[in-house]
Structure to design on (604 residues):
């Protein structure tokens, strides 16, 4: 018996030999010679013998059936011919290679194409991070097995004073992304994917509505609607054009211009992709530097409003000159946020009011953070007290800003 | 996978969108076919970077010449696969010729054998990924998990007759990978499977 030998990748060394190769050993007798003496093969009708050819070629029938087939092949030309053909076909079966496409390849290929033939309808630059991040997560999802979709994932964020979390699964996280991306999609006139209306138009309520709508656990079925919606979104904003970036997207408690909402969705997609990758034990890297830069920039621009909200809630120190608030457009105390690494940069954050103008002259503190660490803080995955940040200057201001960064996160 | 059940309407619309110069359509095309293209190229060339290069060539070609696809001739997926196959085999041949000693007849013969082997292997991969899921599932049990056809039948909740039928039919489809032209092409990535 040739055993494993004829499983070799291109084990067809004898291309035109008329001899029919013997099947590989079957499970029962792997490694051991065929039992001797063999019992007489059963007499089977031609129809059955023919139907056994596939199983025989794969060594997936009982030994007595294999013997019956082999005996038959000596006397039946058409079966012998087919048997040879099927045995050769077995040699073409390869284990599927795990094709981890380099995520950077997508960008390179697409850019190469667009250089050769400039698009008449480009994807707006502010939608590029979303397009790339969704494709990256989708490639990960393509690689995982059915069971992985039920792997527990804990959604984590920072709620006012401390960390908060919610149990879900890989499929549940994709449903979450689908339900929240739909805030943007619906505002552009795309179909509402929620099967039941949400109690409030907020990311959390929408997610709960999606999760609650089905009595069965979510499965990989959720991938397709999520992916279709994201393709629809990229397509729609492309047609709407760069100018559509100012359209307001309502998030329930607040709103973001479309150009920022798309960066926000890209950010969420990456952060949750990391949650998923960690849960199913897959490597996952940060976004491309220029996309990361847009995400950091959005967070930095949202900081003054986050700080003001924390003040209103009594969670942050009131401005120094509480009695005479800084007039809108006037320079106020500022914190210099220095983000290191690829995609980083420097931002001046006005401390006293979102309407104040930050200025270098009024810098009272300086914080330095790595870009990815900053994003994890903004995602509520790192606590403000634990963030590895270089600090210099007004301690209170620094603390308030770090907490304001974490408070940008939500479910 | 969703891809192989895509209606021809999707193919036609995709072609129109590409012709219209919609960058978002190019992204969707990539998302749907990149792993197919890359996988075929990798099977032929056995090299990651070379497969990256073929992937780029394929998408550039489709983006620059969307009208060269005729929806009446079959699914876009088959057309893209055939294009990837053609470009990869052409590259393999060029690589091999470059390293060939002139006038050595054995070497030329060996080259043709190699090209043909790579070509058949790539087409076989395509057939496996494109065949109906029930057939593929049966083959996977019997071959990769070394289940006999009775166990395969039990695993899949089908009769033993049906298990035998699926294994035979699956291999019959796979065997058509050998039915290529004399020089390893054209591969005929038909819509039959």
């Amino acid at each position: 018996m040739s055993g494993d030998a004829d499983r070799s990748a291109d084990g067809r060394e004898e291309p035109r030999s008329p001899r029919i190769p013997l099947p590989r050993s079957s499970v029962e007798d792997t490694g051991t010679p065929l039992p001797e003496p063999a019992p007489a093969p059963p007499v089977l009708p031609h129809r059955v013998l023919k139907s056994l050819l596939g199983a025989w070629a794969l060594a997936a029938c009982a030994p007595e059936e294999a013997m019956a087939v082999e005996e038959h092949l000596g006397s039946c030309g058409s079966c012998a011919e087919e048997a040879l053909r099927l045995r050769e076909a077995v040699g073409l079966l390869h284990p599927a290679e795990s094709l981890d496409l380099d995520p950077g390849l997508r960008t390179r290929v697409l850019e190469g194409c667009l250089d050769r033939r400039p698009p008449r309808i480009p994807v707006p630059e502010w939608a590029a991070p979303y397009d790339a991040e969704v494709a990256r997560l989708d490639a990960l999802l393509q690689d995982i097995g059915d069971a992985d979709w039920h792997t527990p994932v804990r959604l984590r964020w920072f709620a006012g004073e401390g960390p908060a979390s919610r149990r879900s699964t890989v499929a549940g996280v994709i449903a979450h992304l689908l339900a929240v991306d739909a805030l943007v999609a619906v505002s552009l006139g795309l179909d509402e994917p929620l099967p039941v209306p949400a109690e409030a138009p907020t990311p959390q309520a929408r997610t709960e509505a999606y999760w609650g709508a089905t009595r069965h656990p979510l499965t990989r079925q959720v991938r397709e609607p999520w992916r279709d919606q994201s393709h629809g979104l990229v397509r729609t904003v492309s047609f709407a054009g760069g100018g559509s970036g100012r359209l307001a997207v309502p998030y329930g408690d607040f709103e973001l211009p479309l150009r920022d909402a798309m960066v926000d969705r890209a950010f969420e997609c990456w952060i949750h992709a990391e949650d998923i990758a960690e849960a199913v034990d897959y490597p996952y890297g940060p976004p491309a530097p220029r996309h990361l830069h847009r995400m950091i920039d959005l967070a930095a621009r949202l900081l003054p409003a986050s700080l003001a909200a924390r003040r209103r809630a009594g969670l942050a120190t009131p401005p120094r000159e509480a009695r005479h608030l800084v007039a809108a457009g006037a320079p106020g105390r500022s914190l210099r946020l220095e983000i290191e690494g690829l995609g980083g940069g420097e931002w001046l954050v006005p401390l006293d009011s979102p309407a104040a103008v930050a200025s270098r002259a009024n810098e009272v503190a300086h914080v330095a953070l790595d870009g990815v660490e900053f994003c994890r803080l903004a995602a509520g995955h790192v606590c403000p007290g634990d963030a590895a940040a270089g600090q210099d200057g007004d301690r209170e201001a620094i603390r308030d800003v770090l907490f304001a960064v974490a408070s940008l996160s939500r479910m | 996978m969703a891809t192989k059940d895509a209606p021809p309407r999707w193919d036609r619309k995709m072609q129109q969108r590409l012709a219209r110069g919609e960058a978002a359509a190019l992204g969707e095309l990539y998302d749907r076919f990149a792993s197919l293209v890359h996988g075929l190229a990798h099977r032929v060339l056995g090299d990651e970077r070379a497969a990256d290069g073929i992937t780029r060539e394929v998408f550039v070609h489709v983006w620059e010449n969307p009208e060269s696809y005729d929806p009446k001739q079959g699914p876009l997926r088959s057309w893209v696969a055939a294009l990837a196959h053609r470009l990869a085999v052409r590259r393999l041949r060029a690589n091999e010729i470059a390293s060939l000693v002139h006038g050595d007849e054995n070497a030329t013969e060996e080259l043709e054998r190699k090209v043909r082997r790579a070509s058949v292997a790539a087409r076989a991969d395509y057939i496996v990924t494109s065949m109906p899921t029930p057939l593929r599932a049966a083959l996977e049990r019997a071959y990769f998990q070394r289940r006999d056809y009775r166990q395969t039948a039990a695993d899949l909740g089908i009769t033993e007759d049906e298990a035998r039928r699926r294994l035979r039919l699956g291999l019959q489809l796979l065997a058509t990978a050998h039915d290529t032209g004399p020089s390893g092409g054209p591969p005929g990535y038909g819509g039959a499977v």
